[in-house]
Amino acid sequence: MENFISHNPTSLHFGKGVIETIARTVKPLGSRVLLVYGKGSVKRSGLYDRIVAQLNQAGSTIFEYDGIQPNPLVDDVDKAAAIGREKSVDYILAVGGGSVIDSAKIISITIPVTHTAWKFYEYKAKPVKAIPLVAVLTLAATGTEMNPFAVLQNPETGRKDGYGSPLCYPVHSFLDPEVTYTVPADYTAYGIADLIAHCFENFFSVSECSLSDRFIAAIIADAMHWGPKLMQNLHGYDERAAIMYDATMALNTMTGNGKGGGDWGVHGMGHILSLLHGVPHGASLSIIFPAWMKYLNKKAGKQISQLGTLVFGDNDVEKTILRFEEFFTQIGTPVRLSQVGIGEEKFEEIIQLMIRNKVEGRSYKLTEVDYRGIMELAK
Ligand code: NZQ
Ligand code: ZN
Question: Which DSSP symbol is given to 122?
């Protein structure tokens, strides 16, 4: 077991009705708020009106930045930070999925500085301070609501990268499973795939930690139990709640304790698919992970077998991979590149960008030969 420090400063407000407690919870943070959201789902669902009404009643001054896109852009972060800086906001309220909350995390550390947010991603600048961030999660998937990470795209540099700073934990995160009722079936399935992929990435670490491994397996088993039920009943409270909690636990740093950091090679490959072809994040992972496991079944066989034993009570490597692949298909998330319109004629460009961006796993290093082998199995 590796040494580790465990500290998570986010207060999680979970359950039916927590949305109504936002204004009174955030009151001590101040009255000037930068409200950040995406392309309109929060308006269509009525969530925006519910939150704005509360804030108005509390006497808040609201500034807004909307239009954050899935696979979010650093450009939006810079523009939103400029508003936050000019208006001297006291805190940021991010209402949305991973893309909105990730953007808001970087907005929160960019407001106090004068350079572009991308400097953090290039490690040319270190954040010094963060404007407090409050998150209202509308889509269960990434775990961003209780972790210090943020993933942004920069089309100019041709990169989609993750960044983490202890300053980026939300102060409060509000998770009402009812808010996720309006997430359509496809994104619901991608979210389940993403949370399971986070379990995989942490499991395939260099080190073992028996409790973290069992915790990871328990989250996967829970998601595999509730996932298909949720796909049958998108307005089921218990189903939404279970998956929402699974997603938070899958990437709030707990599952990494004692394991020395995850592998993250599949996420790196998936980011290239999102960057070049707009593949939704979770879909990129349900495509690449089964192929990655098949390709690495010799090198990673011992770990796949251990995972199979913990999740299915069966140590057979091939059956374990097949069960995961069948599960992804059952919930309706793709397992082949052809299902998202990526034919073999597009492979070369994808592989070249993987080479340029030096995509690799921490435990299982990847090279050009490996990208080609994995893509071939995913086609
Ligand atoms: O933009 P709006 O209109 O809000 O629509 C969104 C978007 O089109 C919609 N949506 C969200 N909540 C909804 C809803 N539609 C109806 N009802 C609701 N309640 O769903 C679409 C996808 O939203 P997005 O935020 O992009 O999805 P997700 O939460 O899966 O976030 C994906 C992003 O997070 C990054 C991914 O790379 C990707 O950029 N990740 C962040 C991580 C982290 N911070 O720890 C780790 C992950 O591995 C991941 O890389
Ligand atoms: Zn992910």
Answer: T
Dist. CA 31–CA 38, nearest whole Å? 22
Looking at residue 236, its amino acid is G
CA–CA–CA angle 188, 64, 92 (5° rounding): 75
DSSP secondary-structure letter at 334?
-
Q: Is the CB of 39 under 6 A from ligand 1?
A: yes
> Using CA atoms, how far apart are residues 202 and 211, in angstroms rounded to an integer?
13
* Burial (CB count within 10 angstroms: exposed 0-12, middle 13-18, buried 19+), residue 234: middle
| Predicted local distance difference test score (pLDDT) of residue 313 | 98
Q: Are 222 and 230 in contact (CB under 8 A)?
A: no
Dist CA 177 CA 169 (whole Å): 21
Q: Give the nearest ligand 1 atom to 191 CA.
A: 30
Give the angle 153-155-161 at the CA atoms, nearest 5°.
30
What is the DSSP secondary structure assignment for residue 341, as one 8-state letter?
T
Is the C-beta atom of 139 inside 6 A of ligand 1?
yes
Contacts made by residues 156-161, CB under 8 angstroms, sequence distance 24+: 157/118, 158/275, 158/353, 158/356, 158/357, 159/121, 159/275, 159/357, 160/71, 160/271, 160/272, 160/274, 160/275, 161/121, 161/271
- Cβ–ligand 1 distance for 268 under 6 Å, the answer no
Binding site membership of 240 for ligand 1 (Cβ less than 6 Å) = no
Cα of 5 vs centre of ligand 2, distance in Å, is: 23
Strand pairing category for 133-137 and 159-164:
unpaired
Please tell me whether residue 362 adopts helix, strand or coil conformation. coil
Average pLDDT by consecutive 10-residue portion of the chain (379 residues)? 96 98 97 98 98 98 97 97 98 98 98 97 97 98 98 94 97 98 98 98 95 98 98 98 98 96 96 96 98 97 98 98 98 98 98 97 97 98
Instruction: State how far the Cα of 176 lies from the Cα of 180, in Å rounded to an integer.
Output: 8
Q: Which ligand is nearest to the CA of 256?
A: 1
For ligand 1, atom 34, the nearest C-alpha belongs to: 98
Bridge partner residues of 35 (DSSP): 64, 93
Q: Give the Cβ contact number of residue 113 at 10 Å.
A: 17
Strands, E assignment, the chain: 11-14, 32-37, 61-65, 91-96, 133-137, 149-154, 159-164, 172-175
